[in-house]
Amino acid sequence: MEGYWTADESLLVTATDRSIELVKTAAQAAADRLAHDIIAYDVSDVLSITDAFLLASAPNDRQVKSIVDEIEERLLKELGAKPVRREGDRDARWILLDYVDIVVHVQHSEERVFYALERLWKDCPELELPEDALKTRGKGAEHAALTGVDTAGHASGLPDGPDGELS
To answer: In degrees rounded to 5, what are phi and psi of residue 46?
Structure first.
């Protein structure tokens, strides 16, 4: 198995170089459009349909759409990559870009908290991202605190596991 170890040498990253290049370019594009909490996971060992997930969020629908448009434009211009599928445009609360090698999820901050995708993929290796993308960590919580939005009830109303407990 080819790949490299994460910085703390705890997990093996097996995503392809192409997937990692797509993730880094998309993450930079999202950061340039002021996305919050950008993170990427190597899901290649647990899913056969894609190598990586990139997650980002924004506090309003217009910004979600702007982030997605920038990612799509940048990946096409710089890497010649076009998504095979784009979903969620109508409401712009959660837009998904499927590039086969990677899947990009840009969510409204409320959906990000509610669906808590990080919880699902927390056991997968986190991919290295550009510095600008790393600086977005915690921006969603900062924005929520400034605007008085409650983010404490993540995934409320959704069963967490077979017994309704956090897994």
So the answer is: -110, -15
